[in-house]
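Protocol check, entry for the methods section draft. Step 1: assemble the input record (protein sequence plus ligand SMILES). Step 2: submit for complex structure prediction. Step 3: store the structure tokens unaltered in the notebook. Ligand used here: NAP. Step 1 record:
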Amino acid sequence: MYGAGHTEELVGRAIKGYKRDEVFVISKVWHNHLRRDDLLDSARKSVQRLGTYMDLFLVHWPNPSVPLQETIRAMEEVAEQGLTRYIGVSNFSAELLDEARSSTSKYEIVADEVKYSITDRAAEKDVLPYCEKNSIALIAYTPIEHGKISEGPIGDALQKVAKKYSKTPVQVALNWLTYHEPVIAIPKASKKEHIVEDAGASDWRLSSEDFEFLAKARRIFTKRVNSP
Ligand SMILES: NC(=O)c1ccc[n+]([C@@H]2O[C@H](COP(=O)([O-])OP(=O)(O)OC[C@H]3O[C@@H](n4cnc5c(N)ncnc54)[C@H](OP(=O)(O)O)[C@@H]3O)[C@@H](O)[C@H]2O)c1
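Step 3, stored output:
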């Protein structure tokens, strides 16, 4: 799906100079490879391209034409064979996530990767509460709305808080997301200055007052998409 696997080769090269336990490598299997044999083959090829085992392997999207139990059992086999340490899913609703969890026999589903940002609240309806309740990581993709988070209507509020902490609006938007216990944000950045800025979103914490201030601001500005 990502560069027909070439991205994995690049990741493999990029991490060569690091101790293996200093990086956490995640890859995914595309939804047309969710039958057992296809899935195992995909996982083996991912590992081959990466040149190392995966820390976390995700089902990229659900596929209603393949029984979920077959897919999840195959994911467990991937872990059993040492190709990945953990297994998880992506773009799964809370209901499907629950079904996936009931299909496991030996391994836990440790993560659900879904779209979530300070201005997109859909995940808050059921996925976030489910993950919070069951100690599952919610990996938030597109967490800065393709770099446009501070251009949106929430921009003024982000700017105000950013000034207070000597941070940037993007850093505040990312920190706000990870204020929720199970959330890990994965902004994509290819420019070095973006990578440095995004990395500066962690290792500090908004006060509860500022968290609430932003929560209130975005309630006013964002449409209440499936809001709780
Ligand atoms: N599981 C899924 O189905 C799924 C779906 C979509 C995305 N994802 C994953 O989620 C990750 C992130 O999502 P995304 O790429 O859709 O959206 P995103 O992270 O919200 O936005 C990425 C864009 O923001 C820019 N950017 C990064 N840091 C910035 C900063 N500090 N200031 C201004 N602009 C900044 C990047 O520019 P530069 O690249 O020029 O630095 C890039 O154009 C991706 O790596 C992707 O793998 C997963």
